[in-house]
Write a structure and sequence with these properties.
mainly alpha, 19 helices
């Protein structure tokens, strides 16, 4: 490029693709709905405690609907979008040569730092650290054909079924060493199965919260292993990588026939199979974990793709809707909002904040999640009227490029649309 300094700069507002931000904002809504039952500590309550809540009847319905329409679907979208984003970053890096790839790895290393800090000091459910580590592997696939990449992705997405079947047949738990570490650290701080669901609500200081987070980091590791999360994430990254290669997000009209097929077939397969998956989940995997994992695979992924395709078709049909600007705003600040949801959840539900944890049913929890996301939409829309980046995105970019970047918009820039 003629101007090397310009080529090494982050993407400007004019270069962004609005639909990607819209889809990212939509994914953040679902992530909030999926994560807040854990923030509210509802997920940690025993079956007897949940059944004794006044809202138990409504909560059972909401729980089934959550498994049907939310569980796994939005995390799938979020992972796909990371794969698409990686394809954009890597394509830019390839254009810039060695310096571009150094910047890519620096960007991933910084994301790992964000993830580690989030995991250890805010919330044990962090996914960013795993994303950053697996993202560093994506340049290895940049010269492979689409068919080969999608073949590898398909194998990775179905591999959890094989692993879980192996575990069931042999009785070997691959996650057991992490589980042992988890309960070892829990025991050091007096965290037991009896007080696990109330510890964070009863925490009177951040020190107690931090003690829970230490053992929670090991719990998270056990969840990754037990849920074969690294296989799933890498498979979705590679799928998103191919989508990004073909710039589907930028050429929606050209891919309209494909979007229609994904929407129709994804709904036809995903909805009925998700009903079976949700039934399996609420009944405690009556057919075994391997069958449950198979149901996850054949229901969650088709329906998640159908969500994305349907949103793309609506965007094509109503591209001038003002709604898109509102939904794209949190998508442009995805890192800030993802971690922001955790910080808000901490102060709403933990004892160091309002202490609402373990007191709300699942229906009320999801209502709070919707309110939190609505707040983020308004906040981001107003923030982006004045600033070029979200606060964490700004820090991430400055550290990535090793130079100060202007945060406040120029008056002329602020008067532009979006």
């Amino acid at each position: 490029m003629k101007n090397m300094n310009l080529s090494m700069a982050p993407m400007s507002g004019a270069q962004r693709h609005v639909f990607l931000d819209v889809l990212r904002g939509f994914a953040l809504l679902g992530v909030c709905l999926a994560n807040y039952p854990e923030f509210s500590l509802y997920t940690f309550q025993s079956a007897d405690t949940a059944a004794a809540m006044p809202s138990a009847g409504v909560d059972r319905i909401v729980r089934f609907l959550q498994y049907l329409f939310v569980d796994g679907k939005f995390y799938t979208l979020f992972s796909l979008l990371f794969g698409v984003g990686f394809s954009i970053i890597i394509s830019h890096a390839a254009e810039r040569g060695a310096d571009g790839f150094r910047i890519f790895y620096r960007r991933m290393a910084l994301l790992a730092v964000f993830g580690f800090l989030h995991l250890m000091f805010v919330w044990s459910g962090d996914i960013l650290l795993l994303y950053a580590v697996l993202g560093m592997l994506l340049p290895l696939f940049r010269k492979m054909s689409d068919r080969r990449i999608l073949t590898v992705a398909g194998v990775l997405l179905f591999l959890p079924v094989v692993v879980d079947a192996f575990s069931e047949v042999t009785g070997i738990s691959l996650a057991q060493p992490a589980v042992d570490k988890w309960w070892y650290y829990a025991g050091l701080y007096g965290i037991t199965e009896e007080n696990f669901g109330f510890w964070l609500r009863d925490a009177e200081s951040y020190r107690q919260v931090f003690e829970f987070l230490i053992q929670g980091a090991w719990e998270r590791m056990s969840e990754f292993i037990d849920g074969n999360r690294y296989f799933k994430v890498m498979g979705l990254f590679l799928t998103g990588f191919v989508i990004g290669r073909h710039r589907v997000y930028a050429e929606l009209e050209a891919y309209r026939p494909l979007l229609r097929k994904l929407c129709v077939y994804g709904m036809l397969a995903g909805i009925p199979l998700s009903v079976v998956y949700a039934t399996s989940a609420v009944c405690g995997y009556p057919l075994g974990k391997a069958v449950h994992t198979l149901l996850y695979t054949v229901s969650v992924y088709p329906l998640a793709f159908a969500y994305a395709a349907l949103l793309g078709l609506v965007y094509l049909a109503r591209s001038r809707w003002g709604l898109w600007k509102w939904l794209a705003a949190p998508g442009r600040m995805a890192l800030t909002n993802y971690i922001g949801q955790s910080v808000i959840g901490m102060f709403l539900f933990y004892g160091i904040g309002f202490g609402l944890g373990a007191s709300l049913g699942l229906g009320a929890t999801e209502a709070v999640a919707l309110a939190v996301f609505a707040f983020q939409v308004v906040f981001c829309r107003l923030w982006l009227l004045l600033f070029r980046f979200g606060p964490l995105e700004w820090i991430w970019r400055m550290l990535t490029y090793g130079k100060p970047l202007k945060l406040v918009k120029d008056f002329s820039e602020g008067s532009q649309k979006g």
